[in-house]
Amino acid sequence: MYSEKIIILDFGGQYNQLIARRVREMGVYCEILPYATDASTWKDASLRGVILTGGPASVYEDGAPRIDRALIDSLKVPVLGICYGMQLLNYLYGGEVESANVSEYGDTLLYTEDSALFHGVQRATHVFMNHNDRVSRLPEGFASHAHTDNCPYAEFADEARGLYGVQFHPEVKHSVEGTTMLENFVRGVCGCREVYKAEDQIETMLRGIREQVGGGRVVGGISGGVDSSVACVLANRALKPGQLTCVFVDHGLLRKDEARQVIETYKHNLGLDIIHVDASERFLEALKGVTDPERKRKIIGELFVRVFEEEARKTGADFLLQGTIYPDRIESGMGGSATIKSHHNVGGLPKDSLFKKDHIVEPLANLFKDEVRAVGEALGIPHRMVWRQPFPGPGLAVRCIGELTREKLDSLRECDAIFLDELEKAGLSEQIWQSFAVWTGVRTVGCMGDGRSYTGCVALRAVVSDDAMTVEAAEIPYAVLKKTTSRIINEVRGVNRVFYDLTSKPPGTIEFE
Q1: First CA to last CA across the chain, in angstroms?
Q2: Contacting residues for 285 by C-beta, under 8 A, at least 6 apart
Q3: CA-CA-CA-CA torsion for 339, 341, 365, 15, nearest 10 degrees?
Q4: pLDDT over threshold 80, residue 285
Q5: Which residues are catalytic?
Q6: pLDDT in tens, 407-435
Q7: Residue 82 near residue 52 (C-beta atoms within 8 A)
């Protein structure tokens, strides 16, 4: 399909999809594959370079994930190791790796010299570090061009063999000039020139849906978000009339008036065959007494599947369409990465499910959020739907800490609606990636109506991002936060305190649970 590509071999790091995101931002096609994937499936004439990702292992431990040096030597293309990937290259070529005397995490000052990776980079620049091990001795033929106060070899290169490594994470936006460094590798060292666009894959995705489904019938899970909307529009375009039935499940965990708004939007804009299932009682009953967030997600994920199965039996469908995107898969621990939080639409099929593994249709599984939006725009989906704020599949279940009750959820819905209303009035909605209120489960003392109160505490969260994998807290004007706080405390019973969450990602996540 593409005459040039970069292959990213996944060793289980949390930022691996960001590497792919940055490469695609440069207009270069890339694929992420498990490190043990047989090279015969990806080593071809289109290969221009290979990137070895970070990961949680130590290269000197028994059972650490490795590839053969012979494979690297046979590639005949440049190779870049990032964090664990650098340590692995060092280990394979005869250098030494040790546990660092001082682990580095977060913002770190990097001192550089001019080299292939550092063209146009400041001699002192800030990067994102996340490591416990470090290179202690370089292999023969390698030279280092960067260091930090605690890491003598923060980069190395053997330009004769096309081998490069960095101890930090250039893919994370906290690395101020990281994109320049990656582009120096992809465009400079590897010589990639072809332009890649996600929307160019539409015909390929349509063909893939047709080939997978054939003459079968499909139930499409649709939530109102951009991912499921784009997936269903793709399937509707790919398949014949009557093959696709979209199912919107109201699990009782939606925002205020959301079910009505979603159904009206789909009916008037997309022309999809939609069934609305009110399963709120069923979900809330199953979640009664549950406080662990992972259990919440698992219960919700299985119940979604059960509802889809019931609707599938009515229509004769045995395929399930989902709007799964790549960040969902990574955060759920797919491909060897550590599980940050389970996404309800990833790996959640019960063993006795009606839907077999090869009957799960996920046309967006390798795309990032902004790529999905680009596809949505190209498909002609209305702009306001394409740019709708993300909303988690488990809904308010992961924004209401502790046990779920109707009273808590109703109060949270009101808090959330007030926050979104004030942001809309201030003209801030389209500048923010995601904004919402959280019922923290914490009670605090206060003074209301000349008396003591001991009631709930609500947190407000608003973030800016372009990929959902690294985010910063949105800089909301104080006057807006003050007005929102005043309205929540005055209009929502059971709340006497409001916080604004300033945590970035990493180290936090967008959602609280």
Answers
A1: 39
A2: none
A3: -60
A4: yes
A5: 83, 169, 171
A6: 999 999 999 999 999 999 999 988 899 99
A7: yes
Structure tokens at 491: 């209009």
Q: How confident is the model at residue 270, as a pLDDT?
A: 83
| Count of residues making up the chain | 513
Percentages helix, strand, coil for the chain, rounded to the nearest 5?
35, 25, 40
Q: What is the DSSP string of 173-223?
A: TTSTTHHHHHHIIIIIIS-------GGGGHHHHHHHHHHHHTT--EEEE--
The structure's pTM equals: 0.76
Q: Which two tokens stand for residue 470?
A: 């690294």
CA distances 364 to 32, 116, 210, 436, Å, are 14, 35, 15, 25
Token output for 173: 């936006």
| Residues 276-286, mean pLDDT to the nearest whole number | 94
pLDDT over threshold 50, residue 115? yes
Q: What is the DSSP string of 127-166?
A: EEEEEEEEEEEPPTT-EEEEE-SS-S-SEEEETTTTEEEE
What is the rounded CA–CA span in Å between residue 83 and residue 42? 23
Q: Which sign does the torsion angle of CA 124, 182, 8, 79 carry?
A: negative
C-alpha span between 17 and 368 (Å, rounded): 9
Q: Which pLDDT score is estimated for 319? A: 95
User: How many C-beta atoms surround the C-beta of residue 386 within 10 A?
Assistant: 19
Q: What is the pLDDT of residues 41-64, one digit of tens each?
A: 999 999 999 999 999 999 999 999
Nearest Cα to 24, choosing from 171, 166, 126? 171
* Total Cβ atoms within 10 A of residue 119: 12
Bridge partners, residue 128, by sequence: 107
The secondary structure of 267-305 as a DSSP string is HHHT---EEEEE-HHHHHHHTTT---HHHHHHHHHHHHH
